[in-house]
Amino acid sequence: KGNYWLVVVLSLLGKSGISAAYSIVYIYSAEIFPTEYRSVGVGTCSMCSRLGGILPPFIASLADIYKPLPLLIFGVLSLVCGCLTVFLPETVGCELPQTLQESEAFGSDQSIWYFKCCCSCHKTSTPEENVADDV
């Protein structure tokens, strides 16, 4: 009860993270989805992010049951999502996928702790390029 400043600071940090995530979801999802499915992928990511904007008032009402429950839910979900982003492929300097097959293989040559400054992206070759290389 006496740590109101801690709740305010953590709330503001959470709001900053949410604002950053809303901005990043459009940029990253446009990079990771192949061209032919990009609009559907970006739209789906946007819809899921908006659902995340609808749920907090309902989760906040769980404080009537147990006071720290909303903070625990938000904190645990944030940590889980942060840990899951480690599994997303790095796109800096890489040729982005154009087809569904390239998208499925994208990032498969990267380890979990891949950093662009330490390694270079491998260019995935398409069947058209393989034919051009043979000629």
Automatic annotation (TrEMBL):
Membrane topology: Multi-pass membrane protein
The organism's place on the tree of life at top rank: Eukaryota
Entry's localization field: Membrane
Keyword Cell wall biogenesis/degradation: no
GO cellular component: membrane
Major site of localization recorded for this protein: membrane
Keywords: Membrane, Transmembrane, Transmembrane helix
Regions that span the bilayer: 6-28, 69-88
GO molecular function list: transmembrane transporter activity
Residue stretches making up the Major facilitator superfamily (MFS) profile domain: 1-93
SUPFAM superfamilies for this protein: MFS general substrate transporter
Name recorded for this polypeptide: Major facilitator superfamily (MFS) profile domain-containing protein
